[in-house]
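In response to reviewer comment 3 from the previous cycle, which asked for concrete evidence that the modeling workflow produces usable outputs, we include below a single protein chain processed end to end. The sequence was submitted unchanged, and the resulting structure tokens are shown without manual editing.
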Amino acid sequence: MDQILELFFTFIKIGTFTFGGGYAMISMIENNCVENKKWISHEDMMNIAVIAESTPGPIAINCATFVGYKKKGIPGAVAATVGVVIPSFFIICLIAFVLDHFLEITVIANAFCGIKLAVGILILDAAVKMIQKLQKRLFPCVILICAAILMVVIDVCALKISTITMMLSAGCISLFLCFAKELAGRIGEGK
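The workflow returned the following structure tokens.
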């Protein structure tokens, strides 16, 4: 029970003090769950990020659910998920009920300008940490470089390509290359 409560309060803290959504939370989840508490490994965190992005639902909730499940099964998954959701739920309810024109308040608008910059830095931090932990083999590096180039081309040319289409295409290309590599290995063994 103590570990379930620890999961719950850890994710309440992450949900309360992270602005900018799921991508900004990845850095805090890694910091708390990998580096400080050692609940999961860096490899697990990378896998969580990929799976959470590939499955339906917000990435932060998917990450929290996986970490909780990995640590304490279904009760842990529920505790972590509820913990990460509660702060956002109450903050949004408070804003909706109390302040009709929340962002029209000068102090709030100015605070959010600073928060936007911090969110960008948190997202960049998460990306840099994942790239550093990427296996230094040719295939993952080629995928990283191709994805970065494709992203820049899509943004610069203002192309309207669905994220789902890009994710499915990347998955299919990766599967094709994996099967081709396996087939080449079998042909090499047969000679």
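The longest helix spans residues 59-98. We consider this sufficient to address the reviewer's concern, and the full set will be provided in the supplementary archive.
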